[in-house]
Automatic annotation (TrEMBL), chains A, B:
UniProt cross-references to Pfam families, sorted A to Z: Beta-AFase-like_GH127_cat (PF07944), Glyco_hydro127C (PF20737), Glyco_hydro127M (PF20736)
GO molecular function, one term: hydrolase activity
GO biological process, one term: carbohydrate metabolic process
Keyword Hydrolase: yes
Name the record gives this protein: Glycoside hydrolase family 127 protein
Domain annotation Non-reducing end beta-L-arabinofuranosidase-like GH127 middle: ranges: 431-520
InterPro entries linked: 6-hairpin_glycosidase_sf, Beta-AFase-like, Beta-AFase-like_GH127_C, Beta-AFase-like_GH127_cat, Beta-AFase-like_GH127_middle
Stretches assigned to the Non-reducing end beta-L-arabinofuranosidase-like GH127 catalytic domain: 15-421
Domain of life, per lineage: Archaea
Keywords: Hydrolase, Plasmid
Domain Non-reducing end beta-L-arabinofuranosidase-like GH127 C-terminal intervals: 524-635
């Protein structure tokens, strides 16, 4: 079975419902608050006005960031995921109205970008490294595919197809080059899958294969004066922003946009971490379509480099602020950049790696990322967002309602709205349960209708019940045993099965109102990092089930650096705290504060130590109370 | 006895010779290499050309930083210290030539600043916070005083007096305000002491007393468009640089230039650390002259805040790069800024505090600063300098030959050239030995000629011999017992004296070819920092005698973060290494590297530990071999 065949009959989002104590309230706030707020922002920020002005054949007056069109596209995408799961005529009408504005702004030749149409129509496709025309095209296509799948309406799909055709005409013909920010590649693969038009597959392959082989990006970096973008804020913003593409000495740094080598030769994950994730996600889809060994090997090699040398314990990616990305092996400084969008991109990539291989480790990492590196990005009330997700803070890092470069909030919105895509999968004739989330799926496997209904107490306890009915049809069910489970028990109608330590437990039978009960033991674990990680030397992190924990100043009397050798003693579920969390309590060693008056340094070992209590909360929940210090890695 | 009387009969630099195994080679390189190189830089950088153009009544064509005149002044000052200690007709001729250029550039009304005279003559005294006219004046005066004391020539002193008179005419009359960068205050006090002209004392007092009470700095920050400096690089450099005076929200931050409160009310050391040291040094001189309790109390309070809450173990000051200065109590991050000039400024301040009080703790801190925070700033060969002195490096921080803002190299040059000022002191009728450095002093105490000749093996061993002769006159001699001495023995002509644990041992006798032998025990000490210092929690630093030690990658196999619980086992003097250093060797615990293939995080306590050897070198000597990581604070 080729990878292509394996995923050809995937489960659609509309077949999945989510009804989960942990995730449903977050998804409801995402739908009712975030997506609604995003819509208001489209008007307030001038995003919709840009489209209107283009439709009215106005000139100038562009508002917002030069890639502001994507705000509208991402909103449509998130709203479409909502519409795929429930009727909402009011939301659907708003979506139709925005789509209509977009369609009216499309140029007769299919081109669509309000910045260039309003400000520099003559400079299309001249500044591929900075001006994000292809990035915008990608988000348009993703929105169109989501909208078509949710509503079966082709209104936006037609716009996307016309623009994709235009891109296909231009690239490889008039222009040879790749975008500075990957995105269109994975979008074209989505478009190929809904249209079956192989030109989009070929065009995605063109962009993926050319990266690292072309000289256009290097040429643009050396010749900024000839490029489009000079009219945007007098070119100063663009000119300042493009420093990310250069080394300190001003020479071109090929790593930033993953152009240091052809993808198939790359050994390490480099550069801007969101761009890297989008490229690798697209390349994985390409590998699924093409079944090409060399590409698959390179993706697995990159995943291994990332997960064994360049990933935070939260699943967060990219330590460095300046390039918003990766640096060197084992550089995992705790004032991490770890952009929320990079965690989201990692979910996209890992989902595709799962589809390619059927391996549980990718679903394990999606779970780790969802509960930690991603979820920390969203405030408990759903209205504020982190761009950066450090693992340690002095208390001066806080979520915000919106950003000038507002990529994270809408990205979080579309992930939460499409969460159903990550729970179940079908590969060949097997049905996979990848995430334990309350809800249900009803789908068809080899002609048989399978209904599966799930109750889950994750992340607070590892008890899951799954009711399965296929009217007696025999369907292999693969249940993921989470890598964090200390031990597992699985029964079907009360009869025990032998579960592996991790990976999938396959259960095949003629399903007829059967009940599967799973229990995953959630012990509190003290983790340590590889000795090469300088930032975590002599430190431990507390983990329980899928959740990484942290200490916050609000719960703990001492400055956080003073806690040493934390020994967890108990866990308590506190429904009143942080919308309900299980806290880890324990004792740690702290220095006796006596005798230090008037001294800053003194001979070591004069300080007595005493035991004191500590309370740890889930990392995702930090910075939702009074501002204060936070630490994931505690002194061991 | 008032403080003024106590120092009135101080020891002049020309009475002291230094002949010391450790310091003399450094002083010779300073004289032969650095001061010579500095002179060449004066021509190359256009500094002298600026003076020539003003003398020739040219307009425009100013070269270098807007306060570039100080390069010439600092060079004259350093060269004068050299001339005070040995004849050097060639150097003296060069000094005379530069002085002549400076004198020719002085305006008829006494004003002297080549930037304003060449570029914006109409904008004198309009931009006190950024344009450094008074800072330049201060360095001119310091140079003039040093030159006069060394040579008894009044050529530069006359220039300085004329400019000081001009400043005195303007300030408090036409202009009310204080400079953004303190320096003139301490210079005016020096000028007062050589001229006995009380107007300079009063003017210094004016600047010191007005700081924190005036509104001019705040007004300038809010009205940059009306100020001088707009012609300097189109005003962009000045405009960008002045951000240091503002909070992130653009409002004026009164702390940067120590203007948050009147000095007498200040509780904590704030802002740019070099400026703070220069202000406090001047204020201490003022306290010596005025004997004013409130001022003395505030200075002692500030010193206590600095030394017990805001000082690196090396004596370095100021953790933060953005403001080159102080932040909050116990913020002693190891990627310290700790500017070399701040350590030098601390020496200046502490010397004056000693003169004010006669307390040994100030001489102790001068010793600590000289051997660590200051000396690290200069490469072993004397040709390269650190601006910043971190206590931990990944291996990417290196000394440079010169800087665009070249304050540190000439500041280091003038301190090394004037080192003799810190060895001996006279207060009242007592002669103090403050630093143990080989060499001699011949001075007059209460009419008696005292000759004192010193042999010292510091910093490598604590053995010191002092021969004293006063032709039978009785002179109280106060010998500092260093705070680092684990124990001390002192004999006079072989007879033991009881030495205190620290402070001064006073020995009074009729000195007649007597020999004092001192032995200070230098044990290796593991120091810890106050528990509130987050950066050093769970860490220890190694110290021996006055020297702080560090680990460098070149001497140690493992990444430095892996060394835990360092146990010193021996010290060895290695004449071949780093121009001769005593190294500390020992054993530390490091993680077993086995079993980590393919893992980045795993349950703690699975990693076995093993003992391995380490070698520590004096902190001042780091970054003099192949580039690599360095750490002062090791895991305990």
């Amino acid at each position: 079975m080729s990878p292509r065949d394996a995923v050809s009959d995937g489960i659609s989002l509309s077949e999945v419902t989510i009804d989960d104590d942990f995730w449903s309230p977050r998804r409801e706030r995402n739908r009712d608050v975030t997506i609604s707020y995003q819509y208001d922002q489209l008007e307030e920020s001038g995003t919709l006005e840009n489209f209107r002005r283009v439709a009215d054949e106005e000139s100038g007056g562009f508002q917002g960031m030069w890639f502001q069109d994507t705000d509208a596209y991402k909103w449509i995408e998130a709203a479409s995921y909502v519409l795929s799961q429930r009727e909402d005529p009011e939301l659907e009408a708003k979506v139709d109205e925005v789509i209509s504005l977009i369609a009216d702004a499309q140029q007769p030749d299919g081109y669509l970008n309000t910045y260039f149409s309003l400000v520099e129509p003559e400079n299309r496709w001249t500044n591929l490294h900075m001006m994000h025309e292809l990035y915008c095209a990608g988000h348009l296509i993703e929105a169109a595919v989501a909208h078509y799948r949710a509503t079966e309406k082709e209104t936006l799909l037609e716009v996307a197809v016309d623009f994709a055709d235009r891109v296909d005409d231009v690239f490889g013909n008039e222009v040879e080059g790749v975008p500075g920010h990957e995105e269109i590649e994975l979008a074209l693969l989505k478009l190929y899958r809904v249209t079956d038009e192989t030109r989009y597959l070929e065009l995605a392959k063109y962009f993926i294969d050319l990266r690292g082989k072309e000289d256009r990006l290097a040429w643009e970096i050396d010749n900024p004066e000839t490029l489009g973008g000079a009219e945007y804020d007098d070119g100063e913003v663009i000119s300042a922003a493009r420093d990310v593409f250069t080394h300190e000495d001003g020479t071109y740094d090929r790593r930033y946009a993953q152009a240091h080598e052809p993808l198939r030769d790359q050994e390490t994950v480099e550069g801007h971490s969101v761009r890297a994730m989008y490229l690798f996600a697209a390349a994985t889809d390409l590998a699924i379509e093409m079944d090409e060994d060399e590409l698959i090997e390179s993706l697995e090699r990159l995943w291994t480099n990332m997960t064994t040398k360049r990933m935070y314990v939260t699943g967060g990616l990219g330590p460095e602020e300046a390039h918003e990305g990766f640096t060197t092996d084992y550089d995992l400084r705790n004032d991490a950049y770890a952009e929320t969008c990079a965690a989201i991109g990692s979910v996209y990539w890992n989902q595709r790696l799962f589809e390619l291989t059927g391996e549980a480790k990718y679903a394990d990492l999606i779970e780790r990322t969802l509960y930690n590196g991603f979820l920390a990005g969203v405030s408990l009330d759903g209205t504020e967002f982190f761009y950066e997700n450090p693992l340690e803070s002095d208390g001066d890092h806080h979520r915000k309602g919106w950003f000038t470069c507002a990529c994270c909030p809408p990205n979080a919105a579309r992930l939460l709205a499409s969460l159903g895509e990550y729970v179940y999968s079908q590969r060949g004739s097997a049905l996979y349960v990848n995430q334990y989330l309350g809800g249900s799926v009803e789908t068809t496997v080899d002609g048989a209708t399978v209904e599966l209904s799930q109750d889950s107490f994750l992340p607070w306890s590892g008890e899951v019940t799954i009711d399965v009915d296929a009217e007696g049809a025999s369907v292999p069910l693969r249940l993921r045993i989470p890598e964090w489970a200390e031990s597992s028990t699985v029964t079907v109608n009360g009869e025990s099965l032998d579960a592996p330590a991790e990976g999938y437990l396959e259960v095949e039978r003629e399903w007829d109102d059967d009940r599967i009960e799973l229990t995953f033991e959630q012990a509190v674990t003290r983790l340590e990092a590889h000795p090469a990680v300088a930032a975590d030397a002599g430190r431990v992190a507390l983990k329980r089930g899928p959740l990484v924990y942290c200490l916050e100043a609000v719960d703990n009397d001492r400055p956080l650096q003073q806690y040493e050798d934390p020994e967890p003693t108990s866990t308590t579920h506190r429904p009143d705290l942080l919308e309900g969390v299980t806290v880890i309590e324990g004792e740690a060693s702290v220095p006796d504060r006596q005798g230090w008056d008037g001294e800053l340094y003194r001979p070591a070992d004069e300080t007595a130590r005493e035991r004191t209590e500590f309370t740890a909360v889930p990392y995702y929940a930090w910075d939702n109370r009074e501002p204060g210090a936070m630490r994931v890695w505690l002194r061991s």
